Structure formats: C-alpha cells, structure tokens
Amino acid sequence: QAAKAISSPVPVEWYPTLAVVMVSVGLMLTASFF
After folding, report:
1. Domain ranges of the chain
2. pLDDT digits over 2-21, tens only?
3. For the whole model, what pTM was predicted?
4. Where are the transmembrane segments (predicted)?
5. Are 10 and 18 in contact (CB under 8 A)?
6. Chain centroid offset of residue 29 CA
7. Which of 1, 11, 18, 20 is 20 to 30 A from 29, comparing alpha carbons?
8. Rounded to 5 degrees, what angle do the CA atoms 25, 17, 1 make?
C-alpha cells in the first residue's frame, strides 16, 4: 500500500478531474494558436 502511494502521488479519485483539466488546457493552448 505504501509503495503504491509513493509510486502514484495522485489519488485515483482525482483522475477524472485531471483528465478534464488536461483536455481544457489542451483546448485553450490549441485555441491560442489560432
């Protein structure tokens, strides 16, 4: 359990939120080029 927590600093519950944030940032960066 401890080793897994160290290898994965981000909680599993945050993955959906991080995915949405990454997509939003990617869209904003893409839009900034046009």
Report:
1. 2-32
2. 555 555 667 778 788 988 99
3. 0.54
4. 14-33
5. yes
6. 15
7. 11
8. 125
